[in-house]
């Protein structure tokens, strides 16, 4: 019986593993978020600032399909058949809407379950075109009604707890949030999806931005000797995840950007009071496409519109530039040089393979 069920799961390409659900699925969810909510926010912000209504409208449409985009991306990562894939549009919409502020986490959990259930029945009957969408959408929406509000509330509560703790203890929490989110950004998991799932904004969001920038800009400048301009661009505005292979070979190369994030995090929270009040996903993006910086700017605009901020000051811009670009570059490079001198990092340890 057990062997038969295992054979069935294998035939359906259902692999119950950490990698499949928390690396592949979460990474895909971040892509879905980027292609909807995040790009929509950027376009809406540009439209508002430039007074171009068409950009604002396009941005609104993009943001409106965040739930379906996440769900379809997750189903695609789980190698769902076409009918299951397309059915996830309705499931994602329901889970994200009912999940409220914690909608992304609700979508992640429910989309995974609904996709796997849909895969189980896919092509098992002669009326597959009816059965597969019915099961996938029916069970997915039912799970959304039953679970999404609770999942969303739980995720939102955790995010609020982190933000509350950061407000209460900006120094220690600035270090913790910056280091942890920065590490998550370089690991093959999605820091953006984590921040979105927890609705991580405010001072904690600012610390998260600092940590991500320390990793991306830090690795970009520390490895300039090996990777030159191409490495500066691919890591600085692409992703520090490119260094994961080198980190596995020599974990010590990770020390400089981690130390930098432990410094820039509390500087962001205690000195510049840098907050990320744009879309929560921006907190986990760092300098990738300058999304983190656009998110901080969007937050300023939102705060001004809400009447909680008088205007954008020179101190705001100074903090953003120092935290996101100058300090990560200088500090990580200096730490890297020290580790090179004591023999912990050798020439070639940071070379990116193509």
SSE inventory with pairings:
Layout: H1 2-11, H2 18-50, H3 53-64, H4 66-77, H5 82-99, H6 103-121, H7 128-168, H8 170-186, H9 191-197, H10 202-222, H11 224-236, H12 244-249, H13 255-271, H14 291-306, H15 314-341
Question: How does this structure look, described?
Answer:
It is a single chain. The protein is mainly α and 354 residues long. The chain folds into two domains: 2-154, no CATH class; 169-341, no CATH class. 76% of the residues lie in helices and 0% in strands. It contains 15 helices and no strands. Helix 5 runs antiparallel to helix 6 (103-121). The chain is globular and about 65 Å long. The model has no long low-confidence stretch (mean pLDDT 92).
Number of strand elements: 0
Whole-angstrom Rg: 21 Å
> Could you tell me the strand content as a percent range?
under 5%
Largest sheet: none
**Helical region count?**
15
Structural class: mainly alpha
* Percent of residues in helices: over 70%
What's the pLDDT, averaged over the residues?
Answer: 92
What gap, in angstroms, lies between the N and C termini?
A: 46 Å
Rough outline = globular
Spans where pLDDT lies below 50 across 5 or more residues: none
Topology as a string of helices (H) and strands (E): HHHHHHHHHHHHHHH
Overall number of structural domains: 2
